[in-house]
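Ticket closed. Logging final result for Lipase.
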Amino acid sequence: MLKRLFGGYGQITFNFANLFGGADPSQQLYFQKSSSTQAFICCDAPKDAKLIIVAFRGTEPFNAQDWSTDVDLSWFSMGKMGRVHLGFMKALGLQDDKDYVKGWPKNYTGDKKLAYYTIREKLRTLLDQNKGARIIVTGHSLGGALAALFPSLLILHQEDTILNSLFGVYTFGQPRVGDKDFGSIMKANLNVTFKRYHRVVYRFDLVPRVPFDDPISQFVHYGGCLYFSSWYKGEVMKKEPNQNYFNPLYLIPKYFNAWLDLFRGIFAGIKLGKDFQESLVSILFRMVGLFVPGLASHSPRDTVNSARLAKITITQDYEEELEFV
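Final structure:
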């Protein structure tokens, strides 16, 4: 399945390698003169594809530029679209951090291959080659933030062909990316005919709870979330519990669930089969989570397992916001 999924198209590594994973310096893609943003574009078939997937890579543990992007909490104004996280916008290729019109010209004519413009051009080509194909944009952690922001630039530039082909935006462990005004604009554009924005949170994952939703920071999530409250038991709700992570009422549950996740991770392979057997690295990561509860819940493994094993319920107060095709 993976071979077929990625067989038609290869890796896009912005600022580091060429469009399909080579090493020709003339094909390097740039962001702030260093390697950083990475994404994959793939189709469900080499020809006559029905599905195109854009997947942004999350934070690399030992990539200083990625961490610099994550902790840059400065605001960037998008005019009537509201304010967004400056660091994440830079990762997509922002050219001017003072003026959004100069920062995001509709047509970029420079010699650098910037993330947003490169992906947009590739999507235009793929849609022209694969009539009627639908697009899914996704990502985990930092990748989730970029996946959430990418459509906002399509909206800004009125890229109707791509937007009309956008089937959904699915983010996993995504931090907050903008303010209330930005969230309203995104909901108005993504969730009109049916819900196209889906945010997944696993347990007490720290990352979706930052930057803080408070009167000072003013970052907010929008559009609800699919929250896994216990091991792969999902619930669709408006907001995840313990929204800013440091609520003392959740201190004991966070440590208890860190231990529970460790034991379940060790025995998952025995109960569920070899497909769910965890590596030593994953187990060690869960052990670190005993000291910083919520850290291990950010593991992509839980995200993948949740999608495969979950039983999902929808809270009554959220039903009116869900319209699926």
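The first helix runs from residue 2 to 7. No further action required.
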